[in-house]
Every structure is written in C-alpha cells, then in structure tokens.
C-alpha cells in the first residue's frame, strides 16, 4: 500500500510538471528579442499574448504566474526593497465601528503596494473639528496627511481639505446598501482627491462625477485607473511622502545597495557582479562576501 501511494504521488508530481510546461507552450513566443522589435511588432506580439492568456483557465493562470515568478527569481534573484529612502506616511484615522478595520485596509493596501508608500489605518477618536484637530494628530502620528473615517449625522459623505492635509469620510451617509463596499470606494476617492489624483480619461472612474450613493454603487470596484495612479508620486513627494525602491537583486547589486545574499541564486549573482568590472555596480558593494 505504501509503495502504491508513493508511486501515485510521483505520477501526480510528473503530471503537475507537464501541466506547467503545457501552459507555457500555450503562449506565443516572441519572433525575435524584444529589444530588436519595432513598436508595431511589440504591439502585435503583446496583443497575441493577451488573447492567448485570456483563453487560459484560472488554474492555468495560477500555474503560469507561479512559474513566471520562479523563472524571474532564478534569473535575477527576485525583488528586494531599499527602505532607507522611504519617508512619510498617510494615516487613515478610524473613528467608526460599523465597517471592520480589515475591510478599510484592503483598498489601502493595494494603493500602498502600487505606490510603494506607507499608508496605515489606526484607531482614533472622532475629531471635534478636523481643521483644528488635524495638526496635532499629524504631529502625534508622524503623518503627512490624515483621512478621518467617522460616523456622524452632521457631516457630508466626503470632505477634502488638501491645504490642511486632511480629508473626512462619513459612513453614516453611505448606509442603505453594501456599506463596506461603499466605504472602500469612498476611502479611495478621499485618498485620490487629497493626494493629487485628478479626473481620469476613462469613464466611470472614482475621481469622476459621483453625485450620490447610486453612482458610487454603479462603479464596479475600488480600483483607480492607471492615468490617475501615475499622478500620485510627484504630488506625494511634494507632501514629503517618498516611496521605497524596489528592484531585482541583480540591479540592486549593480547599484551598490543590495542586502547580503540569502540563497544560492543571489550569492551567484553577487559574485558575477563583483567580478564583472565593466557592468559592475555604480558604487562599491556594501555587503559582506557570501559565506562559503
């Protein structure tokens, strides 16, 4: 029985391996190196690849993502972060109880990951006056801007005061439907309007005209379009919020800020970069030699 189980496990592993190879084979290969392709050739190739990808099953897509990530890590050492250049943060002060903090954090985590900046949700008391209370809150929490999330019968659904570095989202006005979904969208709207996101060229954007909860509900999710996301970095830096740097381990070695290698792939990259005088790092490597 044990032998049968062992042989079955080996067969399943082999099938899994074949499935991964089959998925890669379903996508078209570039006719030539990307660096040698014209803009028209790249556009045609990307269109063909997107069409092929859209025909994959969800399981095939998961396999493809996993395999692509593995190959990238083997080639470049994976992603590493340089956090010593990161500065400032945006704080969401949660002063309501109807929407769980975990639900508030979901859209903000996606924004933080894309923009590579610090965005936090902290419990707080409702402000008596945003304009009067915000300066002390910002100082206490080391924040560059604050979005209050309150439950009040006296406030509008959304207030924004960029010059005073605060915004306010009021969940009381959002009741009567999916409160969590409405609040998530309103938090993203507050962030966008407070931190430099203007109207989008794409229709049905959260930064477009939203004149009531019905229009808010009509927008399918809390995602911002790419043209809005691209506007944040420069504006945030003007507020003192700077992103961390993320790059492949190979690039970090060449630039001189890579952390010490943590696996054989990174150790090999470290050695190659150190030995390659022509393509070596701009600055000397400031990490200890890998352990033998």
Features:
single chain, 292 residues, alpha/beta, 5-stranded mixed sheet, two-stranded antiparallel ribbon, 11 helices, 12% strand, globular, disordered N terminus
SSE pattern, N- to C-terminal: HHHEEHEHEEEHHHHEHH
- Rg on CA atoms, Å: 24 Å
Strand residues, percent: 5-15%
Please give the share of residues in helix.
40-55%
Integer average pLDDT: 86
Task: Give a written overview of the molecule.
With 292 residues, this protein is α/β, with parallel strands linked by helices. 48% of the residues lie in helices and 12% in strands. It is built from eleven helices and seven strands. It has a five-stranded mixed β-sheet with strand order 3-2-4-6-5, sandwiched between helices. Helix 1 (2-26) crosses helix 3, helix 4 packs parallel to helix 6 and helix 10 runs parallel beside helix 11 (264-275). The longest helix is centred in the first third of the chain and has 25 residues, at 2-26. It is globular and about 65 Å long. It starts with a helix and ends in a 17-residue tail after the last helix. Residues 1-19 have low confidence and may be disordered.
SSE diagram, text form:
Elements: H1 2-26, H2 39-54, H3 58-76, E1 79-82, E2 89-94, H4 101-115, E3 118-123, H5 130-141, E4 145-150, E5 158-161, E6 166-170, H6 179-194, H7 213-218, H8 226-229, H9 232-238, E7 245-248, H10 249-255, H11 264-275
Parallel strand pairs: 2-3, 2-4, 4-6
Antiparallel strand pairs: 1-7, 5-6
Helix pairs in contact: 1-3, 4-6, 10-11
């Amino acid at each position: 029985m044990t032998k049968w189980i062992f042989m079955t496990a080996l067969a399943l592993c082999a099938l899994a391996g074949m499935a991964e190879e089959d998925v890669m084979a379903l996508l078209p290969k570039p006719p030539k190196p990307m660096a040698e392709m014209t803009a028209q050739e790249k556009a045609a190739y990307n269109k063909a690849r997107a069409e092929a990808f859209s025909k994959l099953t969800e399981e095939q897509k998961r396999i493809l993502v996993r395999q692509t990530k593995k190959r990238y890590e083997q080639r470049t050492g994976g992603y590493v972060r340089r956090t010593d250049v990161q500065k400032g943060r945006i704080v969401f002060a949660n002063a309501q109880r109807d929407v769980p903090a975990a639900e508030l954090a979901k859209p903000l985590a996606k924004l933080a990951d894309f923009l590579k900046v610090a965005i936090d949700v902290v419990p707080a008391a409702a402000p008596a006056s945003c304009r009067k209370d915000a300066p002390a809150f910002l100082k206490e929490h080391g924040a560059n801007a604050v979005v209050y999330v309150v439950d009040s019968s006296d406030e509008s659904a959304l207030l924004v005061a960029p010059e005073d570095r605060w915004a306010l989202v009021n969940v009381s006005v959002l009741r009567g439907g999916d409160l969590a979904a409405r609040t998530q969208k309103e938090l993203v709207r507050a962030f966008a309007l407070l931190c430099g996101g203007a109207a989008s060229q794409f229709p049905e954007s959260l930064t477009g005209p939203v004149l009531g909860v019905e229009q808010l509900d009509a927008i399918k999710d809390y995602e911002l379009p790419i043209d809005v996301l691209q506007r944040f970095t420069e504006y945030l830096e003007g507020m003192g919020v700077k992103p961390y740097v993320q790059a492949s381990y190979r690039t970090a070695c060449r630039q001189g800020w890579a952390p010490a290698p943590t696996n054989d792939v990174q150790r090999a990259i470290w050695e190659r970069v150190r030995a390659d005088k022509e393509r070596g790092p701009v600055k000397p490597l400031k990490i200890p030699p890998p352990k033998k």
